[in-house]
Each structure stands twice: as structure tokens, then as C-alpha cells.
DNA sequence: CATGGTTTGTTAGTCAAGCTTACGAACGCG
DNA sequence: CGCGTTCGTAAGCTTGACTAACAAACCATG
């Protein structure tokens, strides 16, 4: 049952775009195959597929790879493969405290070339020029056509890509698409860093159609994919769980309240508490933090019927007692039927998730692949 | 930014269906207007609109209402109105403990004719035949074409409309579409009762594109609309928050744990606790229950960036201290930026919500209107 | 080794559904 | 009373999917 309200008109050319995207998508996720295979996979006719393949081929997005290996009856199939280097995306990850990271990313999410630039604490226009410089260097470096610029930034980002607020960078109302668009004649797509990570997991790690990723770094944020779609929330604040209060009697937070999730699980606070506790009580401190996270996550898991939650953050903190305790807590708080199918896992400290997810912003908007 | 993975082919006829639905949708929500108005609203050309209008008119779905009142320059516009009685939906609400309620529902959600049948505690095949009988009577009563049968039932319902489990009715793996389809030559669409309520609020009460409705009756369940779409969850368990533990030291629950949300807020338990506490401590008991609900809801509000939460249940319980305390708790636990835009409200004891939402199951699937 | 069955990809033609262009009908206004 | 404006429709175009039919290339088989 698909219950989605119709809100805009449909034209034949939208149709074509959709089917083009469907073929690219199929080639990306299922690998090279023949036109006839594509027809069977997609439900389109061989004729239509041939036509679309010609179009995509003339744009260089796909390649003819020659006949299929192995013995089969009938005329040998000619394999068609996605040319993952037809375009590269200039991706920026602005979530780091110390450095902004940028990369050229291929269509399959491969990081082709990586650069970074120090920021340590720079904010406002300084941070903006650092990001611009990074993009400039990457565009210069690129050996193939650039499809666009994808930016994953901390903070709240609206539907147009304007950063409504990013306290760490002291940004408010920063129009990144305009700023970058003025210098580069390329489409620019911007999103929240945790949302980027969620998209990367969705597109490149088969995380499933419904899951939540929780980023534990300097702060704590979440990204949600529901029904194969990113959840942004009406005011674009979905995933902003850092200042959810998990312990009303906890330590004071910069936001003025006490016991925010960020106070309990964010890396700086957690490391400080571990230091104070000493090696002996390390596991217990981590388990306590995991339990607090579990209390915050359980209602979301139950309400959305989530089957997967992924934790991202420093492996030495996130994996082990922290994850185990969080998972056990969620299971113990949710109904057997709901919590049983739950897989909680750690994606380690994979900073490339944000980079590759930022590329998905662009790939999804420009080519329809994700 | 629309980030939704492409998963199936698009054909020209889907296009047509989509645009038909768009016109119906526009007429439903914005009222009668001329073909030219429809063209402006929808973005389609006047020619295309005229063609679609002819098609819809010949099916009796819309009516020509004559010229528009008032003086305007140019040729007078001929108003076109949705014929909300072109079809009726046979809707069943199986969520009651005492009685199943059924109704003939018009396209605009108006309840045209209502029937009910006692069940008090009947389960299994008995409950099923009661529901079938109700549908039979309603089909007999209908004076206009019946578009289909929509059923809102407690429990977990899969994508095909099969009731995977509904403990109250002692149902497991009950294929309602098949059972009803065998007797009635009509499309049958089945969903969870809380989801039906959510759809009714979405379609007929402008509840917005993202919100959660919490049904507090014999149990406690939630329905979620995210991005104008109903959230079902991978295992169709979204909204099953009744056995979320909100108080690990609370009273034992039938599920074997302690302090489930249902133990705290469900009507029978809440009434019993009020009885024991006496009139004097009534407000305090209600506030306590509201607070517990708030603790469960806050993480969901933060994670999804929700701007609206609606409580449904007996007005004497839900409105007042319960709602106030729940709202205050959610606000106090979520970040200012997130919680500030939050509207928590009570829809009272509007049992028709489930009936009308069950009609939306059918209207949405068959006509594309919601 | 010729023949037949199978699979692939293409060619030719059809159909559906949107679009643009153009026009008659009906109004208010000067 | 003519003029500009708006509405709805008619005619023809374009896009993009479809079906039907076919040539090419392979395997199997007598």
C-alpha cells in the first residue's frame, strides 16, 4: 500500500527521466548486464531499454563491455555496464572540528581523490572560504566531468540548501548553493552531515529501506531513512537529537538544560568522563552512556518499527560495551515483536560516509541514482 | 530536495492516473473551480484539463455546476465540482471492544450512514463474521456505487492487508482482503486503526505533512505521517508503542515486562488508577500519566523534527492535565529550536477518525485522492 | 553438417497523453 | 458598438512507451 499524496503534475518527460534513472540504478546495484536483462529487471520492454541505453551511452554514462562470458543458448548477450567514472562529484565534509575534508567521488561512491584543509575552530566567512578553496582545488584536480558539488555540513539545512544554523561554524542563513554557484557553474546540493551518512549507508551499504544512523562525534546527531526516503522534518530539524534531555539531573549543557544526550555521549564529554573514571571503570562508564542512548533511541525504534540502527563514531568508544549496552537497553524497552528484528551495529569511524553521502545528494538530484 | 529511490518503471498510463488524481485532489481540498482555474492550480494546460475533466465527468466523479457567480471580465467560467457522492466507501472500524462500527463514507470523508454491531469480546471467526455482516448490511444500504471496502483494525497489518497479529481479536494471519473479496466483488483495503486515524487527520483536518497521532483507548498505538506519506515500518510494526517500557519499576504488564506505556496511559488502567486515587488527586494522576507519555514521545519528536502531535482518546481523560503535562514534558526535554514549533493537541474521542481514515485507504488506492 | 529452437537486439508501425497554436464564444469597459 | 480579455475547444505535433516481426548468432541434435 503506497499512500502518498499527489501534489504536482506528471509529464511524459518526467517519465523518461524516471526510467533512465531506473536503468542506472539497476546497473549500479546489480552490476553489468545485457539489455535483455535490464528489460527483465525493470519491467520495460527490450525496445525501450535499447532506446534508453543508446541515449545513456551517447552521454557516456554507460559502456558496452562486449559479449557475456560462458556458454548460453541463443545469440550472445552484449553486456552493458555503468561507467562509474562518467562523472565525478566534488564532495565536501564540513563536520570536522580540525579539518574540512573534500574528495572527488565516483558514481559508485568510490573516493577517487581526497584533500583536506585545516580549520581548527575557524568560523563564519573564514570557514566558508576554506570550504570554497577546497572545492576549487578539487575541481582543478578532476580529470573527468564534474556532475556537481555536494556538501555535508553540521547544523540545520533547509530544502534549498541554505544553512539555517550551524553553531559550531557560527553560520546562520548561509546560502551555500548561491555562494558556490557564483564561483562554479555547477549544481550545488547541501545537506546535514548525519543525513549524508544515512544516504551513504542506504546507497552503498544496503542498510535497508528503513533505518536510523546516529553520529557520535563532537556532538550527536541522527539521520533517518524511512521508506527509502530521507526524513528532513517540516522545519528541517529531523535528526537533531543532541539536545534531547536523557537525564534531567545530569550535568549542565551549553543549551541551558541538564543531561542532554550530547553531554552524555558526545566524544569530548565521554573521553573526559573516561579519563576521570580510570581504566578500571572504563567499561562501566561506556555502558552507562550506551544505556542513556538506548533510552533515547527505544521510543524511536518502536514508533517507526525500525529494524536497523547504526552507530557512527570513534571505534574505541562506540564498539564494545557502549554498543552492547545501547542495544540491550533498546531491546529490553521495546516489545519483543518490535525489538526482536532489531539490528544495532557500529559503522566505526568511517568519515568517508559523509563524503560519499554528500555525493549522493548530487547523484540523486542530477541522475536519479541512489 | 526529494531523495526517494526509484524502484519501478513509469508508463504513460501511470502519468494519466497521476494527473487525474491531481485534479480530484485539487477539487477536494480547494473546492469547485473552473477548468482554467484547475489548469493554473495543477500546472497542466487548459486543453489537458478539459480532456481529463471530460473523462472524470463521464464517470460521474465530477459535475458541471454552471457559471461562476459575480462579475468578471471575459467569458464566464463554468464551475466544476467534485461529486463527493459519486461513490461511497464501506468503512469498518474494528477497534472497539464492545462494538464494531461501520459506515458508508463519501469522498470528502462525510459519514453518510452508520451502523454498528455488538462484539463484546468475540474473537476469531465470530469477530470475522460480525465484520462481514456489517459490511453486508452496508453494501445493501448503499444508494450509490460502492468504491471498495476499507477496514481499520487493531494489530499489525502487512502490505497486502493481511492481519499478522491482533491479540484483542485473537487474529493471526487473517487474510481480510481475500475473505471480504470472496463475498463482495469489491477492492478491499486494510490497515491499522491508528494509521487510519492518522490518514483521516491528514486528509480531512489539514494536520500537515508530518505528524504523529497517538490513540489512547483499550491500548495505546500511534500512527505517523512523514512527508505526506504513511509510515508502516519494514515489518509493518510502526506505531506499536503500547509495550514500550516507560517505567522499568512500574506495574507488571501482560507482555511480561513492567511499566509498559499501555499500563500507564491505556483507558482501563488509567480509570482504575483514578478510581483508587479519588477525586482530589485526579489531576495529579492524569499529569503523571501525561508526563510518562511525554517521555516516550519526546525522542520521536526530536528525531523526526515533528511539529504536531495529536492525542485521541476519551476527552475527560485526554484533555486537560494529561495533555498539558505531556506537552510540557516534551517541550522540556527537546531542544528549544525543535520543541518550540511543536503543537500538541487533542482530537477528543472522535471515533469517526478511524472510519474516515479507513475510507482513505480505499480512496487513495482507487482514486488517488487523499 | 544442415536444421531447428532459443535468445538477443533492432526496425517499423501503433497508441496514449501530453503539448502548442489557433479560434469561436461570451463577457466588461470605454 | 468595437475592443480587449478570458474561457473552453479543435486540430495537429511531439514524446515516449508499446506490439509485432525479423535478422543474427548461438547450442543441440539427428
Can you tell me about this structure?
2 copies of one chain form a homodimer. Chain A has 370 residues and is of the alpha/beta class. Helix content of chain A is 41%, strand content 22%. The first copy, chain A, is built from 13 helices and 16 strands. In chain A, the strands form 4 sheets. Chain A has a 5-stranded mixed sheet, sandwiched between helices. Chain A has a 5-stranded mixed sheet with strand order 14-13-12-15-16, sandwiched between helices. A 3-stranded antiparallel sheet of chain A has the order 1-3-2. In chain A, a hairpin with an 8-residue loop joins strand 9 and strand 10. In chain A, helix 6 (193-204) packs across helix 13 (352-366) and helix 8 (267-277) packs antiparallel against helix 9 (282-304). At the A-B interface, helix 1, strand 13, strand 14, helix 9 and helix 12 of A face helix 1, strand 13, strand 14, helix 9 and helix 12 of B. Chain A binds a DNA duplex (30 and 30 nucleotides) through residues 10-13, 15-16, 19, 34-36, 44-51, 71-78.
> In terms of quaternary structure, what is this?
homodimer
What class would the helix/strand composition of chain A place it in? alpha/beta
Chain pair sharing the greatest interface: A-B, 84 and 84 residues
CATH architecture of the largest domain in chain A: 2-Layer Sandwich
Largest sheet of chain A: 5 strands, mixed
Stretches with pLDDT under 50, minimum 5 residues of chain A: none
Helical residue percent band of chain A: 40-55%
What proportion of the residues of chain A form beta strands (DSSP E)?
Answer: 15-25%
The residue-averaged pLDDT of chain A reads: 94
Total beta-strand segments of chain A? 16
Rg of chain A, alpha carbons = 22 Å
Number of helices of chain A: 13
Amino acid at each position: 500500500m503506497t499512500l502518498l499524496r499527489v501534489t504536482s503534475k506528471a509529464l511524459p518527460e518526467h517519465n523518461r527521466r524516471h526510467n533512465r534513472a531506473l536503468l542506472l540504478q539497476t546497473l549500479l546495484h546489480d552490476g553489468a548486464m545485457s539489455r535483455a536483462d535490464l528489460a527483465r529487471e525493470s519491467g520495460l520492454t527490450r525496445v525501450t531499454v535499447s532506446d534508453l541505453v543508446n541515449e545513456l551511452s551517447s552521454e557516456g554514462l554507460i559502456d558496452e563491455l562486449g559479449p557475456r562470458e560462458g556458454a548460453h543458448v541463443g545469440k550472445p548477450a552484449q553486456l552493458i555496464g555503468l561507467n562509474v567514472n562518467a562523472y565525478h562529484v566534488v564532495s565536501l565534509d564540513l563536520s570536522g572540528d580540525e579539518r574540512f575534508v573534500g574528495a572527488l567521488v565516483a558514481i559508485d561512491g568510490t573516493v577517487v581523490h581526497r584533500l583536506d584543509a585545516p580549520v581548527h575552530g575557524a568560523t563564519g566567512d573564514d570557514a566558508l572560504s576554506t570550504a570554497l578553496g577546497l572545492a576549487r582545488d578539487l575541481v582543478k584536480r578532476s580529470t573527468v566531468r564534474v556532475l556537481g558539488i555536494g556538501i555535508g555540513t553540521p547544523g540545520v539545512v533547509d530544502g534549498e540548501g541554505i544553512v539555517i544554523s550551524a553553531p559550531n561554524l557560527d553560520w546562520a542563513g548561509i546560502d551555500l548553493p548561491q555562494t558556490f554557484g557564483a564561483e562554479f557553474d555547477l549544481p550545488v546540493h547541501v545537506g546535514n552531515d548525519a543525513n549524508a551518512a544515512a544516504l551513504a549507508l542506504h546507497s552503498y551499504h544496503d542498510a535497508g529501506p528503513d533505518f536510523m544512523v546516529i553520529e557520535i562525534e563532537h556532538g550527536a546527531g541522527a539521520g533517518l531513512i524511512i521508506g527509502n526516503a530521507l526524513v528532513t522534518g517540516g522545519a528541517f530539524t529531523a535528526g537533531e537529537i543532541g539536545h534531547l534531555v536523557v537525564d534531567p539531573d545530569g550535568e549542565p549543557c551549553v543549551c541551558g538544560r541538564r543531561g542532554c544526550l550530547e553531554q552524555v555521549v558526545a566524544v569530548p564529554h565521554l573521553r573526559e568522563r573516561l579519563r576521570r573514571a580510570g581504566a578500571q571503570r572504563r567499561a562501566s562508564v561506556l555502558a552507562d552512556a550506551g544505556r542513556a542512548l538506548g533510552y533515547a533511541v527505544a521510543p524511536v525504534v518502536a514508533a517507526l518499527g525500525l529494524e536497523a540502527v547504526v552507530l557512527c563514531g570513534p571505534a574505541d568508544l562506540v564498539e564494545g560495551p557502549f554498543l552492547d549496552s545501547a542495544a540491550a537497553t533498546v531491546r529490553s524497552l521495546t516489545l519483543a515483536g518490535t525489538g526482536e528484528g532489531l539490528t544495532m551495529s557500529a559503522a566505526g569511524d568511517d568519515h568517508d560516509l559523509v563524503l560519499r553521502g554528500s555525493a549522493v545528494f548530487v547523484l540523486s538530484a542530477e541522475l536519479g541514482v541512489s
